[in-house]
Write the C-alpha cells for this entry.
Amino acid sequence: MPPIVWRRPLRPRDVHQAHRASTPLELLVDLAFVVGVAQVAASQHHALIERHFATAITAFPMVFFAIWWAWMNFTWFASAYDNDDVPYRIATLVQIAGVLVIAAGVPRAFDHKDFAVVTVGYGITRVGLISQWLRVDGRPVERTAARRYAAGLAIVQAGWFALLLAPGNAKVAGFVVLVAAELAVPGLAERGASTSWHPGHIAERYQLFTLIVLGESMLAPTIAIQDGLDHGSPIVDLVLIGAGGLLIVFSMWWLYFDHDAEAMLARAIGEDDTTARAKRLAFTWGYGHFFVFGAAAAVGAGLAVAVEHLVATTEHESLSDLGAALGLAVPIVVFLVCMWVLHGKVGAWRRPQGWVMPVTAILLIAECWLPQPVLWFGLTLVALITVGIAAGWSSAVDPAES
C-alpha cells in the first residue's frame, strides 16, 4: 500500500488514464448511499401501503433528489480531481457523514413533512464539497470554474436553509426553484471554462450506483415476503410475486448493463472533453439518471407493496389491487422510458427497436388489471429482452451499428 500523502496540489487527472477504477474511498461513499436509498425505499413503501399518495408523489422525489445530487456532485468532482491526499480524504468523510444524516432524516420527511434533518445533512455534504472546490489548482480557467462552483453551492445551500423558515404553502414552489438553481450551477460554473471527467470512471460509478438501487429492489421485497410468511399469506401468491419480482430486477439489470456506456462517453469526449458535445452529453446523461435511479429504487418499494398487499391486516386492506399494481408498474415504465432515451432509441422510429420499449410500457400499464400482475410484468420484460436478442438489435448492439 502506498504511503499516505499529507497534501498535494489538487489538479485535474488525466481523462485518458488507463484502468481508472473506483477507489476504496469511493466504495465507502457508496455504502453510505446504500443506507440513504434503503431509507427512501422503505418510507415510500409505507406511504403507498397506507394510501398516503400525496406524500409518495411529493416526498419521494424531494428526498431522493438530495441523495442523488449529493452523490452526483461527489462523483463528478472525484472523476476530475481525486488526489487521495489527507485533506481530500477528510473532506470526503465529511460528505459521508452528511449522507448518513440525510438518511436519518428521511422518515421524518415522509411522516411529518419535516425536512430539517435532511437539510442539515445536505448542508454537511456541501461543507465537504465546497472545501474541495476551493482547493482546486491548475490552469486559471480551471480555478475560475472551481471558484464558481464553490460560490454557487454556498449560495444555493443558504437558500435551502432559508426554505426551512418559509410557510408550508411556499415550500413546494421554493423546492422547485432551488432544484433548478442546483441544476444550473454546473452550467454557470463552466461557462467559458471546463471541468474534466474520465469516461470509464464515470461509467463505472453510474453502474455501481445502479447496482445499489437494484440491490435495494431485491432487499425490500425479500423482507416483505418474510413478513408475509409470518402472517400466513398464501404461499402460491408469495411464490408468484417473488418469481415476478426477480424477473423484473434481473431484466432491469440486463437492460441497463447491456449497453456500453463507457464507449459512448469515450466517443463523445474524444480528444477534448471541453467540446460542446461532451458537455451536453455529460449534463443530459448525468441528469437523466435521476429518473433511472429513482425508478429503480421505487421498484423495490413497489415490490414490497405488492407483497404486503397480501397480508390481511385491517390497516392495509384499503389499498386496492389496482393501486398496488400501479405502484410497481409506474416506476418500471419510467425506467424503460429512460433506457429508451439514454440508449439513443428515441429517433429510431423507422425500425422496430425504436418503438418496442414504448409498446412494452403500454403493455405493462394494461397488465395492472390482470390477476398476478407482478408475474406478468416480469414475463413481459423477459419477452422484451428475448425478442431483442433474437432479432439482433439487443441493447448490446450500439444504436449507430444497428
About this structure: Residues 276-308 form the longest helix (33 residues). The chain is about 75% helix and 0% strand. Residues 198-402 form one domain. The radius of gyration is 22 Å.
